Amino acid sequence: MKMDRSCNAQRFFLRALVFFLSLRAHQALSSKRVRALNNTVSAMFVFGDSTVDPGNNNYVRTVFKSDFPPYGRDFPNGVPTGRFTNGRLATDYIASYIGIKDYLPPYLEPSLSFEDLKTGVSFASAGSGYDPLTAKLSNVVSLPNQLEYFKEYKKRLTSTMGEQSTTHHINKAVFLVSAGTNDFVVNYFTVPIRRQSFTVATYQQFLLQNVKDLIKGLCEEGARRIAVVGLPPIGCLPIMITLNSKNAVLQRGCMDQYSSVARDYNALLRTELASMQSSLATQGSRFYYADIYQPLSDMIQRSPSYGFDQALSGCCGTGLLEAAFMCNPKSFVCPDASRYVFWDSIHPTEKTYHLLFQSLRPVVDAVIQD
Hints:
By secondary structure, the chain is of the alpha/beta class. The protein has a domain of 254 residues: Rossmann fold, CATH 3.40.50.1110. Helix content is 47%, strand content 8%. It contains 12 helices and 7 strands. Helix 2 packs across helix 12, helix 5 packs across helix 6 and helix 8 runs parallel beside helix 10. The longest helix is centred in the N-terminal third of the chain and has 37 residues. It starts with a helix and ends with a helix. The relative contact order is 0.12.
């Protein structure tokens, strides 16, 4: 009887072991398939504002910096890298998912190795936008200047890899552009200069022309796969609620008059990208619209279902106005940022960025399979 029990136990153990090893083998094969798929991507390049700036502003003379605590509190080793959040950005998750690298570094970081440069960097600068005035207001790197940095980058690569290999490398890369929020939040709705010359509708068209110019510039430099991120629900940003509500402390709610501007702009952007796809198809370029409006709006409107306790104020300070230097080592910080949609009054938390990345995975998959 004891021998039967022992035999049964051994059989159970062997079956469990076989199942475990089979599962591991399946996972390994699945992992290899993903990596093989992603061999079509040579590098990742990012342009835009603080939502995708991993630290370029550390090397720019501007007050729009985040290279100090509590920023980076939940980044590995608690390092404040210059990312405007408590941890990683959506672009870090995308780069890791593609298989490029775990963290996308800033181009202006002087210590980057050639391999760091080769596999991709971000040229983004917090406070920037499609409107050249937006970057001037914050004294940061404009998108046209980010494009110039990319041209400089190409020369650095060419000097080591040669022109033909560099061209092939750029052709196989993925490009992502994320900007526009500052054009409305920091510029149009806050500073009166553009409102004197543009209606909301004509300002949207002005921005779209600058988007087109940037995309054409990237295509001329060899970009073949470009994803452009739309605007978030800007009327739900804590700072917009604070600055534009009559009683923003006691009665906080999204302001649809501003979010509707973002929705209209996003619709125009999608149409423009489709039009450019038709006109530039002969070059082999592909353009993709990346929607963050709907997923972020859903997180805010149904915050408890995502595990959030607070959706309309940030984790840092009061969460109503603080950002950049106003969110600093002396600021009160919530104990668990994963319970908040926003880290400061403008920027999402690492958890929110991860959820946005997950919502963008179908777009990422389409880009890397193309």
